[in-house]
Input
Amino acid sequence: MAPGASLRIKSVESSVVALPFDMGGPTPSFAGRPWGHLEILLVRAETEDGFVGWGEAFGHAAIPATRAALDTIVAPLVIGRDADDIEALSRDILHAVHLLGRNGPFVYAYSGIEIALWDIRGKRAGKPLHALLGSGARPELDAYASLLWYPDATLVAKNTAAAIARGYRHIKLHQVTRADVLAAKAAPGAEKARIMLDVNCAWSVEDAHVMAQSLKEDGLLWLEEPVYPPEDVHGLAEIRTHGIAIAAGENTAGVFGFQSLIDAGAIDIAQPSVTKIGGIGEVLRVIALGKARGVKVTPHCPYFGPGFLASIHIIAALIEEPLVEVLWLDMAANPFDPWVRAVDGRVKVPQGPGLGCDPDPEVVARYRSGASVLTTQGHA
Ligand SMILES: [Mg+2]
Output
């Protein structure tokens, strides 16, 4: 279709929603900053014919940097472009900013816009995103409880037991010792659950060898990001020889980064992250690569807004053995309730057009901490 004026992107708005939360223990710091709120970097895109889409750009302590990249560079590049030619836009924008970083705020910023454009595409078609992506949609998906880091094994056991009591049958720990894994395995009800361990690149290759050897009989479903730096694909491949399935990819730049991981024999499970990697289109390319190369894909999605909703749709449509990452915490009212919460260890797949849920403006207003708008007329 030739781009008509009505399909052009008229405005892009960024805003931050900061939700209070309780994670069942003291909140950790993140990149040296205290982590007091769940922050969502919301992106709102509007076309000249009045369609509005919502996206989410990564995230956490990177939000001020991502937002600056969005407001000053990426949004001006997309204003006036055809909202429905997402593939061409992705190629052009990511090429235009490639020497500003292939993995970081500029790609995160574009990811948020790209998700919003898919939301618009679904709304324009009158179909939920999962129906645009495939025909195998399911109304509910199994989820796993992704526990945050706790300073002692007692809290690990307590939160593992609590998550199992709430219906989860898969528990991921963000701990770095075997003692913590054993504490989780000994928690009440743990015999009903599988445990995964995510160490967020805590170890050298040498240390990871020692740890993987010690953990090999503990029945872990997977070991995630055992090695720093995450692009050490050959180091990761060495750790995989201990026999524990290796998962990685939330810090991988684009589909070619996943190709390097797979070529090196480094991973069993690929974890593209929709708010970081360039949006839905790039996750689809990673899923296609995984299918072609016999590598499972389990998207990384510890998010609370459109990034989470987009992940649910992708998983519902395209992932054979769905397992949705849900951070283990209780949060205040969320603008995307009820779709961002798991019940009995499962999440529901939204059935409305696009992402299937626009944010509740009253909840956004309650927790909003600033907004800026760029339009075809410039900053508003
Ligand atoms: Mg992780």
The radius of gyration is 20 Å. The pocket of magnesium ion is lined by residues 198, 200, 224-225, 250, 300 (CB under 6 Å). The mean pLDDT is 95.
